[in-house]
Amino acid sequence: MISRGLFSGLTSLRRLRLLGCNIHEIEDFAFGDLKDLRVLNIEYNHIIAITNSTFHGLVSLRELLMSGNPIIMLDTGAFSDTKGLKKLIMSRNFITELKQEWWHNLKYLKELEFSSFKITQIPNGVFHTLLGLRYLRIDFGTITMIRHGMWTGLSSLKSLQLRSDGITTIQAGAFSELIQLEILDLAFNNMNIVHGGMWKGLNSLRDLNLGYTLLNTILPRGFFNLPKLEILDLSYTKLKSFPLDVFDPQFFENGHPKNLTLNLRKVPLECDDCLCWMKMGEKEGWLHWWKDILFTIDGKPKYVGGPDAESPAEENEGICYATLYSCH
User: Fold this and answer.
1) Which residues share a beta bridge with 87?
2) How many of the other CB atoms lie within 10 Å of CB of 299?
3) Of 142, 322, 300, which is closest to residue 242 (Cα–Cα)?
4) How far apart are CA 56 and CA 2, in angstroms?
5) What is the pTM of this model?
6) CA within 13 Å, CB half, 118
C-alpha cells in the first residue's frame, strides 16, 4: 500500500516511477505532498480502484501512466485535480464502461491511450470535452462497429489508432467529425469491404492503414473523400483486384495519382487492369517500384517491375511480393 504521508518532504519531486512494485492499494491523499510532480508511473501493479482522492494534490502533473493494473473502479472525479494533464495512458485494465465525466477537467490533454480493455462499445459523445486531443489509441478491444457520433468533440485529433478491435463495420460518415485527422490505423480488423462513404469528412487524412484485415472488395469510389492521401497500406489483405478508378478525382493531377505510396505486400492480385495502370505508371515515370511484384495473370505468374523482374517464379505463386511503390 502507498499510504498517506509516505512522500512527506518531497515537495520538489518532478518524476516518480513505481512500475511493478506490487502495489495493491493507494490510500486517499497519498500523493498530496507532491505539488510539483510532473510525471507519475504506477504501471503493472495490482491496483483495482482509483477514487476521487487518489490523485488529490497533483496539480502540476503532466503525464500519468497507469496501464497494467486490474482496475475495475475509476471514480468520475478521479482526474479532478490533474487539470494540466497532457498524457494519460490507462491500457490493460478491467474497466467495462467509458464515462465522459472522466475527461471534464482535462482540456489540455493531448494523448490518450486505453488499449487491451474490456469495453465493448464507445458511447456517442464520450470524448466531447477533449477538444485539444491530438492522439488517441484504442487497440485490442472488442468494438465491432464504428458509428457516426463516436468521435464528437475530437476536432483537433491528428492520429487515431484502432488496431485489432474486431471491427467488422464502419458506417458511412463515421469519421466525418475528425476534420484534422492525418493518420488512421485500422490494421488487423475484420472488415472485408471498403466504400467511399467510410472516409467522408477526412479531407486532411494522409496515412490510411488497412493492412492485415479481411478486405477482399473495394467498391467503386472506394477511396473517395481522401484528396490528401499519401500512404495507403493494403498489405496482407485478400484483394484480387485494385482498379485505378477507386480514387477521388481530386486525388489526380495530370491524369495520374499524385504523391502516393502504396503497400501491397502479399496481396494476391489477379487482374489485368491492375497490371495495366501500374505498368503505365512505371513507363511514364510517376510510379517507381521499390521491390518486385508477382501477379497471377490467367493462372500464370508474371513479374512486373523492380530489381528482380527477371527472376523466375518459384514459391507462393499468385502472391504479390510488393512492399511499396510510389506515384510521383
Assistant:
1) 63, 111
2) 8
3) 322
4) 14
5) 0.86
6) 11
For the chain, what percentages of helix, strand and coil (3-state, to nearest 5) are there? Answer: 10, 20, 70
State the residue for C-alpha cell 466525418.
Answer: 176
Cell numbers representing residue 99 in the block: 464515462
Q: Kind and range of the H or E element at 273? A: helix 272-284
Three-state DSSP at 163 gives coil
Closest CA to 212 of 186, 187, 194, 241: 187
Beta bridge partners of 73: 49
Annotate 83-103 with DSSP letters as a single string. TT--EEE--S-------GGGG
DSSP conformational letter for 281: H
Which helix or strand (DSSP H or E) is residue 283 part of? helix 272-284
Q: What are the CA-CA distances from residue 26 to residues 116, 165, 221, 294, 300 (Å)?
A: 23, 31, 54, 58, 66
Grouping H, G, I as helix, E, B as strand and the rest as coil, residue 159 is strand
CB contact set of 112 (below 8 Å; sequence gap of 6+): 88, 130, 133, 135, 136, 137
Cβ neighbours of residue 185 closer than 8 Å, sequence gap 6 or more: 159, 160, 161, 162, 163, 207, 209
Strands 87-89 and 63-65 come out as parallel
CA dihedral 30, 32, 37, 40 (to 10 degrees): 30
Going residue by residue through the chain, which has 328 residues, state the pLDDT in tens, using 9 for 90 and above. Answer: 999 999 998 999 999 999 999 999 999 999 999 999 999 999 999 999 999 999 999 999 999 999 999 999 999 999 999 999 999 999 999 988 889 999 989 999 999 998 887 788 899 999 999 999 999 999 988 889 999 999 999 999 999 999 998 999 999 999 999 999 999 999 999 999 999 899 999 999 999 999 999 999 999 889 999 988 888 898 899 988 887 778 877 766 665 566 677 787 888 877 666 766 666 666 766 555 444 454 554 555 555 544 444 443 334 333 333 333 333 3
User: In angstroms, rounded to a whole number, what is the distance separating the alpha carbons of residues 58 and 61?
Assistant: 5
What is the residue whose three cell numbers read 490493460?
A: 92
